[in-house]
């Protein structure tokens, strides 16, 4: 069979015009499919960045909260009630809000401010410069060095700024796992300072971060919180809730799905049509092979090999091209959201398999139907 | 096989095409024999059934009735895969339009029957090169068929047909696309260099210029054998 497949390979690649068209079609489709789904993954990842960065196991919030950015303040008794719930190891408040800071240059810049629990600093970032305890220093803020860091004009330790007529000082520079979706730099400070500096509503606790004693205690904690009229989600559930909001409530998911489907159809059209034409042009030759003594299963193996080889080559090139484009884009646009996940790659691979299967199915049908006698008949 | 023995024995072969009112009989109770060491020509006007007969005796087209024995094997009693295997191992084909693969080199085209017989690629190419040498085209081995003249392409097709050393060689209108001189050169080559005592060659042709090469000529008309002539002056 090796020789027969080599024959199929030569028939395919030696027809350079069609082979190029096939490869370009599949590469282009894969590029678009991976790019679209990666953009979506990147956006979803960034939309949950605070949840990922803080890392608490259970989050308590107002049931109307749909994304991390639109938190709704909760009264203090909720924190007390959660703390006294059986199965809770500890629970701390978290402030999450947006503020406008005036930089040294005089420009105003919107920032995300995260106020960590004063006592535990649960969810603190990884320090790159300075010490975490300096967050307690007067006016102390920690700047996150991510893709938005430049918008703070590359602050150093000791750089000060103005926040709602309060002086803020950078006492540390830190990093987090994931930067945010909305292109704003992030500052960490203590919960107390955050609610003191930033104009806020009557209730100031955005979220309550809960460490359960065990995973088994989580359902009970959720039930107690629900009984209070609030919602408790595990980290994964909260990320999923945020993702669901962006997928189904913003139109983003529909648009991405549409673009991915269009990419698939383009790939299928170009590759399917070209492959079918390739088979049609070689139909008489396949008939001649049948007459010489090739069996149907050998001809089917040849066609499937050609389709598979084309699909895999196009897939590899498409993914490679997409990685290159995303890398280049990230060099130019640091907060470019695209994120290639195994899920995206599998999805694109599955679609390429469908393209190859449909293209070869049409070809196989024609080849199986041709009779060697047709070759004699001309 | 035995020298002068019967290579093909067809008896009472009938073949129809089409359905209902359009149903026509292409072969009417045809019986014929071909022997080893013989070059047999099947001639007749268009639509006389000669290509149909050629297809039936070479295991390509199943007749409605009648038997075809090749070297004593009742061909149409075999399953389809066995018939395909039989064609691959025992029969060589030269098609009217050659049907060479334009994207393969000449030598790769010749090697196809060997590759289908699962011979390792390099062995098949080496063997094919020997046969290209036999047909005088070794120096064209690396070229695609489209770079060759009509006569050269015909010789490549012959090399492909004989590379697996078949007992039976089937040629369909081998001179139809060639000028008179080239046609005669090709048939002369087939007669003197390809035909031997252990091989039977059957040719379907319109071309009266090559009748002189035949050992026997079967004349067909309206699906029936209309006479057998002796040829063989050359």
Sequence-ordered SSE layout with sheet pairings:
The complex is a heterodimer of chains A (378) and B (234).
Chain A: H1 2-13, H2 16-47, H3 49-54, E1 58-61, H4 76-83, E2 88-102, E3 108-116, E4 126-129, E5 140-144, E6 160-163, E7 166-175, E8 186-190, H5 191-197, E9 207-212, H6 218-227, E10 231-234, H7 235-249, H8 252-281, H9 283-292, H10 296-332, H11 342-369, H12 372-377
Parallel strand pairs in A: 3-8, 5-7
Antiparallel strand pairs in A: 1-9, 1-10, 2-3, 2-6, 2-9, 4-7, 5-8, 6-7
Helix pairs in contact in A: 1-10, 2-8, 2-10, 2-11, 8-11, 10-11
Chain B: E1 6-17, E2 24-35, E3 39-43, H1 50-57, E4 65-70, E5 73-74, H2 80-90, E6 91-94, H3 106-116, H4 121-134, H5 150-162, E7 168-172, H6 180-194, E8 200-205, E9 216-221, E10 224-230
Parallel strand pairs in B: 3-8, 3-9, 6-7, 7-8
Antiparallel strand pairs in B: 1-2, 1-4, 4-5, 9-10
Helix pairs in contact in B: 3-4, 3-5, 4-5, 5-6
């Amino acid at each position: 069979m090796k020789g027969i497949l080599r024959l199929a390979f030569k028939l395919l690649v030696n027809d350079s015009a069609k082979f190029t068209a096939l490869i370009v079609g599949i590469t282009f489709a894969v590029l678009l499919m991976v790019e679209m789904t990666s953009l979506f993954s990147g956006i979803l990842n960034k939309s949950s960045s605070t949840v990922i960065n803080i890392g608490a196991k259970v989050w308590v919030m107002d049931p109307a909260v749909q994304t991390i950015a639109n938190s709704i303040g909760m009264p203090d008794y909720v924190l007390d009630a959660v703390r006294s719930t059986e199965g809770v190891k500890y629970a701390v408040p978290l402030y999450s809000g947006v503020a406008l800071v005036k930089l040294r240059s005089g420009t105003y810049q919107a920032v995300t401010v995260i106020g960590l629990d004063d006592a535990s600093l649960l969810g603190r970032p990884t320090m790159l410069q300075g010490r975490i305890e300096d967050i307690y220093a007067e006016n102390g803020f920690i700047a996150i060095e991510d893709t938005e860091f430049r918008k703070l004009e590359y602050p150093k330790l000791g750089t000060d700024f103005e926040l709602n007529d309060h002086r803020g000082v950078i006492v540390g520079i830190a990093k987090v796992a994931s930067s945010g979706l909305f292109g704003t730099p992030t500052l960490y400070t203590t919960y107390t300072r955050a609610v003191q500096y930033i104009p806020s509503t009557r209730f100031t606790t955005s979220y309550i971060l809960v460490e359960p004693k065990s995973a088994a205690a989580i359902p009970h904690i959720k039930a107690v919180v629900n009984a209070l009229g609030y919602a408790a989600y595990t980290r994964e559930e909260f990320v999923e809730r945020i993702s669901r909001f962006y997928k189904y409530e913003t139109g983003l998911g529909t648009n991405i799905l549409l673009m991915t489907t269009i990419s698939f159809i383009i790939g299928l059209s170009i590759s399917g049509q070209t492959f079918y034409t390739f088979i049609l042009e070689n139909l008489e030759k396949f008939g001649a092979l049948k007459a010489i003594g090739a069996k149907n299963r050998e001809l089917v193996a040849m066609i499937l090999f050609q389709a598979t080889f084309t699909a895999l080559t196009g897939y590899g090139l498409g993914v490679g091209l997409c990685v290159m484009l995303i890398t280049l884009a990230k060099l130019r646009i640091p907060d470019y959201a695209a994120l290639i996940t195994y899920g995206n790659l599998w999805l694109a691979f599955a679609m390429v398999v469908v393209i190859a299967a449909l293209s070869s199915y049409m070809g196989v049908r024609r080849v199986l139907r041709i009779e060697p006698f047709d070759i004699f008949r001309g | 096989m035995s020298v002068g023995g019967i290579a093909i024995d067809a008896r009472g072969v009938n073949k129809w095409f089409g359905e209902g009112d359009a149903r026509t009989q292409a072969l009417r109770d045809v019986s014929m024999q071909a022997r080893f060491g013989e070059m047999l020509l099947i001639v007749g006007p268009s639509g006389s059934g000669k290509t149909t007969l050629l297809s039936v005796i070479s295991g390509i087209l199943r007749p409605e009735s009648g038997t075809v024995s090749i070297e004593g094997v009742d061909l149409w009693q075999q399953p389809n895969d066995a018939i395909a295997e039989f064609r691959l191992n025992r029969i060589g084909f030269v098609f009217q339009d050659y049907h060479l693969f334009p994207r393969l080199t000449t030598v790769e085209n010749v090697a196809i029957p060997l590759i289908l017989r699962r011979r390792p690629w390099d062995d098949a190419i080496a063997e094919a090169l020997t046969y290209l040498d036999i047909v005088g085209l070794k120096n064209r081995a690396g070229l695609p068929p489209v770079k060759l003249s009509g006569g050269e392409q015909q010789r490549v097709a012959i090399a492909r047909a004989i590379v697996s050393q078949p007992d039976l060689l089937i040629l369909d209108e081998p001179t139809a696309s060639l000028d008179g001189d080239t046609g005669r050169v090709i048939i002369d080559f087939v007669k003197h260099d390809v035909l031997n005592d252990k091989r039977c060659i059957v040719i379907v042709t319109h071309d009266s210029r090559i009748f002189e090469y035949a050992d026997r000529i079967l004349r067909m008309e309206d699906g029936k054998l209309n006479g057998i002539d002796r040829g063989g002056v050359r």
